[in-house]
Amino acid sequence: MHDTPILIVDDEESVLEGLGEFLEDEGYKVYKAQNGNVGLEVFRSVKPELVMTDLRMPGMSGIELISEIRKLKENIPIIVFTGYGAFDTAKHAIHLRVFDFLEKPVEMEVLKKTLDRARRNVEAARKVQDEMEVLREQLASFQIRLQEQLVKFSEVEPLIQTGRLLAGILHDLNNPLMHIMGQTEFLQMIHPEIENLVLIQDQARRMGKMVSAIMQRLKSSQSRKMEWIQVNKLLEEEVFFLDCQPFFKFEIEKEWQLQDNLPLVRGIPAELNQVFGNIIRNAAEAMVGQPVKQLTIKTWYDAAGIHVSIQDSGPGIPRHLQHRVFESFFTTKGGGAGMLGSMGMGIGLYHSKELIQQYGGSIDMISDAGAGATFVVHLPTASDARDQED
Fold it and tell me: Which residue stretches of the chain are H helix?
């Protein structure tokens, strides 16, 4: 066991010498100071793991010393030893979370037991900090790897082309994530006072939700089976997925106007994901460089079916180009892929319109130059046009 560094502060030289000899025999590396000012300087210099101090000393008092030490190292165990009549002063030390109080003259056996407990606390805290550092490194590495895969994933259109490969990658990433979550939950049970563990847990849960959402999407895209779909939920998942892009997450304000109790739509989730994903990405990319970036998503239904409106605050589409937005290979992008993962080839809206028409629905576009664009998807509540594929 390594020598635990300990600082003793007392204005009585005999106390320092007696305690110092005893503690050195017990395996401590002892540092001594005869007043609070010197004690504080020694503490800054050697950074001990334990502190023992008297309360009544000339110059800087023990209470002042403890307060200054707490500013430098908040959780260090501090043991107070004090003479008769000083316990009223010791009450102030309680607010500074001292580890224990001992009355002079100090009984060595009592001191030994107190220091043993304090040293065990130091060892436990060191292990927790080491484990937390490992968890932070694992989490940071996982975040980088997950972000890389999410960006790659968002660039793939249609989704099914890389489904099997990405499923394997996400499965491999899921194992260290589960380990991180399990370890943080265990550490929180035994050390609930450590706030950083909650932050790690929250981030791990968020990434777990991302992985789960992507895996579910991959499963749906590979199965290509007809299902009853909750349109509101599908839209929320699409926006959650696109939140992996910092621009989309932090710069675009989202306004939701979702009508409750929408009827279910019969369809293939991967196809509707493509439709809404294409429109939302196009809307977001249209707002790059705009002073106001607001995405408004609205749903409602009536006798004709379910309607989804996706509106952006971009520059709008010039009137002379509006009739071409659903043409294949027509694009207003300057070239190359869009920053949010669209291919920039002019096939997204064309393909979306084709898919919606197969469900017996349609897509309308409303736009004025300088006033953004709105795409409205109309879906019948019973998509009989695709039922033969069930």
Answer: 13-25, 36-46, 62-72, 87-94, 108-154, 163-190, 196-223, 231-242, 246, 269-286, 348-358
The reply to whether 235 and 369 lie within a common domain is yes
Q: How far is Cα 372 from Cα 354, in angstroms, rounded to an integer?
A: 24
> How high is the mean pLDDT of the chain?
78
The larger pLDDT score, comparing residue 148 to residue 258, is at 258
Do residues 31 and 5 make contact, with C-beta atoms less than 8 angstroms apart? yes
Q: What pTM value is reported for the model?
A: 0.47
How far apart CA 20 and CA 42 sit, in angstroms, is 15
CA distances from 381 to 233, 340, 387 (A): 16, 31, 13
Same domain, 160 and 248: no
Q: What is the spatial distance between Cα 100 and Cα 288, in angstroms, rounded to a whole number?
A: 60
**pLDDT digit string (tens) for 306-316?**
999 999 999 98
Q: Residue 12's Cα: distance from chain center in Å?
A: 52
Query: For the chain, what is the radius of gyration of the CA atoms?
Result: 32
Domain endpoint, select from 186, 202, 223? 223
Report how far residue 51's alpha carbon sits from residue 54's, in angstroms, rounded to the nearest whole number.
Answer: 10
Same domain, 237 and 328: yes
Cis peptide before 105 (omega within 30 of 0): yes
Q: What is the mean pLDDT of residues 148-158?
A: 55
> Over 90: is that where the pLDDT of 235 sits?
yes
Q: How far is CA 158 from CA 60, 79, 226, 253, 285, in A?
A: 71, 66, 18, 27, 19
Structure-token pair, residue 377 = 């998807």
- For residue 353, how many other CB atoms are within 10 A of its CB? 21
For the segment 320-335, what is each residue's pLDDT rounded down to a tens digit?
787 788 776 556 555 4
